[in-house]
Amino acid sequence: MASNMNPAYAYTVVYVKDVAKSVEFYKKAFGASIRMLDGSHRWGELESGQTTIAFTPVHQHETDDITGEVQEQKSKSRRNQLEICFAYADVDAAYKRAVENGADAVCKPEEKEWGQKVGYVRDNDGIVVRMGSYVKPR
Questions:
Q1: Helix and strand element counts for the chain (H, E)
Q2: Structural element, H or E, at residue 129
Q3: How far, CA to CA in Å, does 130 sit from each of 15, 70, 95, 107, 121?
Q4: Cα–Cα distances in Å, from 14 out to 44, 46, 82, 128?
Q5: Single pTM value for the model
Q6: What is the mean pLDDT of the chain?
Q7: Which of 76, 72, 109, 77 lies closest to 90, judged by CA?
Q8: Rounded distance, CA 129 to CA 127, Å?
């Protein structure tokens, strides 16, 4: 009997300077619900649909020794190899909320040729967050 080896996408881990601060920032700026924040503030999770966005400190001996150090963003002219994307029915309102709650404005929402309205901000760790509508079928 063959086993089913298709993985279920569990979560994305975002390495940040301050887990509690990042979790609270995402709650306020993007309207995310906090799933949990452990007592040590070394792990936090957000509800994000069928998957989870998790936060953990940039520097931690548990993973640095195994997989190497996390490279922190050094300049706003460069970005991490990670972009967090949220879908909203009202991208303009979501963008406004994010900026009013501390996100750095990068690009105001605009209609794209592929049928999606998209705006960009940076979070409190400099990570790019794309805020977009659902793509309209053509």
A1: 3, 8
A2: strand 128-132
A3: 18, 22, 9, 9, 7
A4: 10, 11, 8, 12
A5: 0.81
A6: 86
A7: 109
A8: 6
How far is it, in rounded angstroms, from Cα 73 to Cα 134?
29
Two tokens, residue 99: 């900026």
Report d(CA 10, CA 112) in Å as an integer: 30
When comparing pLDDT for 64 and 136, which is higher?
136
Cβ within 8 Å of residue 13, ≥6 positions away:
54, 55, 56
What are the angstrom distances between the C-alpha of 117 and each of 71, 91, 99, 132? 31, 7, 17, 5
The angle at the Cα of 100, spanning 16 to 114, to the nearest 5 degrees, equals 80
Edge-to-edge strands of the sheet including 83-87?
83-87, 128-132, 117-122, 104-111
Looking at residue 11, its pLDDT comes to 81
**Domains of the chain in sequence order:** 11-71+79-132 (3.10.180.10)
In 3D, which of 71, 36, 72, 30 has the Cα closest to residue 54? 36
At residue 34, the 3 state secondary structure works out as strand
Cα four-point dihedral sign 22, 26, 98, 122: positive
